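Request from the bench team (R.T.):
"We need a structural guess for the complex before ordering more adenosine-5'-triphosphate. Sequence and SMILES attached. Just send the tokens back."

Command: build protein-adenosine-5'-triphosphate structure.
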Amino acid sequence: MVCPTPVAVGLRDVSAVYGATTALRQVNADIPAHRVTALVGPNGSGKSTLLGVIAGVHSPASGTVRRAHDEHPALVVQRSAAPDRLPVTVRDTVAMGRWAHLGAWRRPKAADRALIDACMERLGISALASRTLGSLSGGQRQRALLAQGLAQQSDLLLLDEPAAGLDPDAQTAITDLLAEVSAGGVTVIHATHDTDAALRADHRILIGNGRIVATNADADPAAAPHPVH
Ligand SMILES: Nc1ncnc2c1ncn2[C@@H]1O[C@H](COP(=O)(O)OP(=O)(O)OP(=O)(O)O)[C@@H](O)[C@H]1O
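Reply to R.T.: structure attached below.
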């Protein structure tokens, strides 16, 4: 008996534009809950835009996006999109992941501080806690942004090339981390150019020129998530 996988995000006829540029064209997809989904495709194919649409930071020009999750999605952007010269420390950066959970004065409680410490520990950046982001290597900064994403404790974690620029061991560690996080009940969607990371995902979506070209569900219909009604 096939056990149906619930859908975390359902996209129907979604198109997205930047001015005159069409980045997504009539995208239809069901993203399985509590699994790792890899978005793969060449540069400029629309992966980041799709993540932005799912995160709710880029409004689709047409179509619908339905999220089953209660929490606000956590979106971890590519490091090139993060400001370089902000005088914030690694700890501050990770702590920003708690902002949505804090009151008006954004004062972290003991539990928030413990979580921030745990997220830094998980990404191996505890020793860098007092360093400013601008003083870090690209890979170290990328880990700080990932720790910030984890600190949000969202049940929908969206990551844009989380292992880009990391050394091979660190790339493997990030892929392991994503699998661990999804095993804990989080839906993970990540854009990647790393074939190993894509192959280790539970579900793959291949994008080309703003369209979905293939999913692994095409090859194995039993693996397709079952739509929610
Ligand atoms: N801010 C923007 N303004 C105008 N066009 C944009 C903008 N961002 C992306 N685009 C265009 O939208 C299309 C999809 O870009 P997107 O960044 O989603 O691709 P991608 O698959 O994530 O690429 P990469 O692998 O290089 O990160 C491309 O044609 C790109 O040039």
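Two things stood out. Helices lie at 47-55, 90-95, 110-122, 138-151, 168-183, 195-200, 216-219. DSSP finds seven helices and nine strands in the chain.
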